[in-house]
TrEMBL record:
Organism: Olivibacter jilunii
Protein name in the entry: Crp/Fnr family transcriptional regulator
Lineage: Bacteria, Pseudomonadati, Bacteroidota, Sphingobacteriia, Sphingobacteriales
Signal peptide: none
InterPro entries: cNMP-bd_dom, cNMP-bd_dom_sf, RmlC-like_jellyroll
Residue stretches making up the Cyclic nucleotide-binding domain: 8-111
Gene3D superfamilies on file: Jelly Rolls
Superkingdom in the source lineage: Bacteria
Record-linked SUPFAM superfamilies: cAMP-binding domain-like
Length: 194
């Protein structure tokens, strides 16, 4: 499991991980597995761990008063999953995080993440780059939700995240895009008729 993470980290830093870095990472991350449909986090609980997805697919969602699920985030291999606000602020999370497929994960605590940022340059560089990318992605998603048509949201999604498009069913993708599955079916039909 750790080798996959070491390979991932190497993409963010020009300097290779030292043996001491690798040993510290092994001591800090906790390997874990989730079965399909098993929860990493349930609404009302504090997010005590962030997870690096070594294998599998996950979804993060809220449930409204009518029982409708609203997908906030999807993740697959080499992605991170967790509720950042709950993780950082020690607050109960409004989200459920569930394994959509069988998952192999590396968990890290907040204290562990802070320690690695101080001691492992590659981890610090990774976090900085991911924070920047996440900020840009969140802005794009917000702008899209406010002003883009369903067709444009769908097109942007499959172009940006082909790995997610292939792994999740239509009703999950529709919820993530903020449209109903009938609208998504219509958009897909129109797209493929062109």
């Amino acid at each position: 499991m750790y080798d996959a993470f070491f390979d991932y980290l190497s993409k963010f830093s020009s300097e290779p991980l030292s043996d001491d870095d690798k040993a510290l990472i092994r001591r800090t991350f906790i390997p874990s597995k989730l079965r399909k449909r098993q929860f990493m986090l349930q609404a009302g609980d504090q997010c005590k761990y962030f997870a690096f997805i070594v294998k599998g697919a996950m979804r993060m969602y809220s449930v409204d008063d009518k029982g409708t699920e609203h997908i906030v985030r999807l993740g697959v291999e080499n992605w991170w999953m967790g509720d950042m606000e709950s993780f950082v602020m020690f607050l109960p999370s409004p989200y459920h995080i569930e394994a959509w497929e069988h998952c192999e994960l590396l968990y890290i605590t907040r204290e562990g993440a802070i320690d690695l940022q101080k001691k492992v340059l590659a981890f610090c560089e990774m976090k900085q780059q991911l924070d920047e990318r996440n900020h840009m992605a969140n802005n794009r998603r917000l702008a899209s939700a406010i002003s883009a048509t369903a067709a444009k949201r769908y097109t942007d999604f499959i172009e940006c995240y082909p790995e997610l498009y292939k792994r999740f069913p239509q009703h999950i993708l529709a919820s993530y895009l903020g449209i109903n599955k009938d609208t998504l079916s219509r958009v897909k039909r129109q797209r493929y008729q062109k």
